[in-house]
Amino acid sequence: MLLICIFFGGNISFAGEDTRVYQLAVESAKDGQMEFAYMRFRNLLNNYPNSRHYADALFSMGEYYFFIPDYRKASEYFEQFLKQYADKEEAVFALAYLYKTAEHGNRIDSMNQLKKRIIDFRRVGLLFQKYKVYKYRSAMNHAYRGIFYIDKIDVYRGGKLFVAITY
Amino acid sequence: MSIAEENSLSQSRIKLVYRTLIVVVFIYAISTIVVNTILTVSLKRFLASKQTILSHKIRIGRAKYIFPGRVVIKDFALSKNDDFSKEETIFLPTITVNISALSSLFKRHVVVTDIIARDTHIAWAYFCVFIGEHWEEIIEFIKSLPKEDVQIRLENTMFELVPKGYGPDYAILDFNFRLKGDAIFVDGVLGKNLDPVKATKDIPAHLSKQPLLKYGFRGYLHPDGFSFDDLMLSGQHLYSKLWGDFTAKQLEVNGFSFLNTRAMAPQDRKNREAPLNIIERVKFFLRVLKGGTPPVDELSERNIYLLDINVVADMDFPRVTLKKFGFTFNKAPVNIRGGLVLSQGIDFDLIFSFYPVLSKTKDSGKLERADFKVTGELANDTFQIDGEMEMAFQSREGQVPLQRVKVNFEDFLFDFKDYPKFRTGLNMGAVSWWTNYNEHRISVGNVAASIDFGKDTVKYIEAKSDFYEGTLDGKVWIDTSQLPFRITGEGMIKDADPNKLQEFLVHFSKVRGKLDGVVAFENYPRLNVNGKMELRDGNVRNFEFFKWLAESFDLPSLVSVDFYQATTNFGYNVDRVSLSDINLESRNVKIKGYYNVDKDELVSSKISMFFSDDLLRPSSKSRVLLKFFAPEVDFVDFDFQLSGDQDSLNFQWLPSASKQRIQNGIPDFIERIIERRVEGGLESEQPSSKPVK
């Protein structure tokens, strides 16, 4: 038994261990300890690739790098998030972050492409409503709201307008 | 001395003068008679033996010797045929050969000092054939001449440029050739008959001559061939200096040229005609007295610089192969390769390549490179060509890219007999262009056009063509005072098939019927096309939003909406396509509004749709709406705003009196149920991941 544990030592994860790491990360973020939160999310990504919290951890890493700011690293994490979780509603907020990083780098062509991806994110049909709302609270404790009108999309982060797309 | 002696002396002197005169007259008479007799006999013998020059037949009228050193030959003709027809003859009515009698006596052979031919008539086509077939023998003949100075002058030589039946068209040439040892000096003037004349069998006695081109060069014969320098061509719109070598059938030329392609605009002409001060007037008058073209400094309106000209060509007549032909066109490199066959006309197979981006000037704009491939022939003042031109443009961050343009044409005829008016015809032509990696294409066929290339900077073209099973009548104006040219145009379309226009705009794939329209076009400052279309007796099929309505509300007839008439204004530029003031009428559906698609293929649109009772009543889902309206209402209106991707449009039902009436008739929770059902329907259509271009 001991030999088996040693042989597979690096790869054994106990059930709930990823959740524990995740929760510690979330608590750190709530307490404003971003570096600790970052280390714990990184630990989760490296050691628990099949965790149900993987998506949230990936998103949070992107958030962290965006606000350091390290836009290149942030873009890597958000692109990876979109590659694996494009169907999730929070994917639109990952796209918003990528749009902002392109805006910072004045990459007009990238901004145009990302604008189109945001617009194409969800088809909107408004019969009696005037808009549709998508919400998400990240593991880093940031609240996001995406409001889809017929001719514009407003993305809010923490109650402040983060990205505005008109078309 | 006494008076008698003086008288005797003067009488002796008079006798001496008389005797001298008699001797001179005797010598003159004898030499004239003898030489002329010899000439006449020799000529008869020569003509009887049917001599030829390089297998071309010769005819001579008569030859006369004038003492002491002049021979005049009358009516000399060279021809391929026995009948010496005008179209295939070189005819010299008078050739004057001056001989140095003294040199001839000393050297014991005839020494010719100069040969002058006046009013020569040359059929251009025949001349090209003669030179093309025998240029090597001519060069060898020149090299074989004794190394004595001789001058040959052709004055008022007339080249007939078109064969009989088309009406005479002439170029007038003065040509001076001087051979001095191994050196050759050539200069002269080339002019053009600009007076209109009717076709006639006789050559007009006087033709107005306006010098178009002065030319001259200095050359040297050597055993392997011929070299030349200082080859100068100077005209009102051209100044060129070339130098080169011709050795072992290979021609190498270097040099430069300046061109002025801009005719003076009316304002420029007015400025030019403004009164000069007295000093300028004197200078101008002195230049005119010297004659000919203004000096090169006066080519002040030059707008084209051809520099670093370098040509290497194999001259294996009649074929000329361009191994290398490069130059810079206003600092942009140009390269030409291919071949020519020079016969009565010119056959060619050439590729032109142009790289303006390498000029690195601000004027180079976005054009990266252009390639033009053309095959065809030039004969009888007509070009007939097939060709293909492709242009690639630089993409710049943040700018809407016009990426590529391609032009194809087959059987393009360009007739410039009536210059400056041209006639053209085209069997098939197509223009394709790519923006945002999407191809757009316009094709035309059976085009007939006339072009007025007059003195003004704005050239005018009128054209008619087949156009997608209908016709297109168009007018185009090309402003050549700037580069690139500014082009504007307008056209009228009749009975075209709109569905076939889908190669121009993909949206036409959904439309069938007959299309009439008017269209206006300009390329500067940006490409812009706009106009008005009228469609009749057709249908709109598979329009995405109508398909969704048809499926969601059980209205199958919306999949293909037939109409009597539909009109719309339209606009196209690289930023967007727009349809405005849309008005479609059919028995059960009416549509009004606008529909725009931007460069990212995103839609912005507002559409008002009117559905008839007959359309709504059969549908189980839709007939319920009718109960909200009075029975006498024929049409129920719905206002929609559309946006987003064309293939999955977002939509919003806009407020209106009809919507308010429906909302007043249903409770809020029913509204939410309907909303959720629509949402569910849209989400079920959502692909798992959207492709990104």
Question: Would you write up a description of this structure?
Answer:
With about 170 residues, chain A is an alpha+beta fold. Chain A is built from 7 helices and 5 strands. In chain A, strands 2-3-4-5 form a 4-stranded antiparallel sheet, covered by helices on one side. In chain A, strand 3 and strand 4 (about 150-155) form a beta hairpin. In chain A, helix 3 crosses helix 4, helix 4 runs antiparallel to helix 5 and helix 6 (about 90-105) packs antiparallel against helix 7. The model of chain A is unreliable at about 5-15 (pLDDT under 50). Helix content of chain B is about 20%, strand content about 50%. Chain B is rod-shaped, with a radius of gyration of 40 Å. The model of chain B is unreliable at about 195-210, about 265-275, about 290-300 and about 690-693 (pLDDT under 50). Chain B has a 34-stranded mixed sheet that branches. Chain B has about 700 residues and is α+β, with helices and mostly antiparallel strands. Chain B contains 10 helices and 34 strands. The chains are: A alpha+beta (about 170), B alpha+beta (about 700). The interface of A and B includes residues 115 and 122 of A. Strand 1 of chain A pairs parallel with strand 34 of chain B, so a sheet runs across the interface.
Key phrases:
heterodimer; A: 167 residues; alpha+beta; 4-stranded antiparallel beta sheet; 7 helices; 5 strands; 53% helix; 16% strand; globular; B: 693 residues; 10 helices; 34 strands
Topology (elements, then pairings):
The complex is a heterodimer of chains A (167) and B (693).
Chain A: H1 2-7, H2 17-30, H3 34-47, H4 54-67, H5 71-85, H6 91-104, H7 108-119, E1 125-126, E2 132-137, E3 143-148, E4 152-157, E5 160-166
Antiparallel strand pairs in A: 2-3, 3-4, 4-5
Helix pairs in contact in A: 2-3, 3-4, 4-5, 5-6, 6-7
Chain B: H1 3-48, E1 52-53, E2 56-59, E3 62-66, E4 70-79, E5 89-99, H2 101-107, E6 112-118, E7 121-123, H3 124-144, E8 150-160, E9 170-180, E10 183-192, E11 210-222, E12 225-235, E13 238-247, E14 250-259, H4 266-272, H5 278-290, E15 304-316, E16 319-329, E17 332-342, E18 346-354, E19 367-379, E20 382-393, E21 402-415, E22 421-435, E23 438-452, E24 458-467, E25 470-479, E26 486-496, E27 511-522, E28 528-541, H6 544-552, E29 560-573, E30 576-585, E31 589-598, E32 602-612, H7 613-616, H8 623-626, E33 635-645, E34 650-653, H9 657-665, H10 668-685
Parallel strand pairs in B: 6-8, 7-8
Antiparallel strand pairs in B: 1-2, 2-4, 3-4, 4-5, 5-6, 5-7, 8-9, 9-10, 10-11, 11-12, 12-13, 13-14, 14-15, 15-16, 16-17, 17-18, 18-19, 19-20, 20-21, 21-22, 22-23, 23-24, 24-25, 25-26, 26-27, 27-28, 28-29, 29-30, 30-31, 31-32, 32-33, 33-34
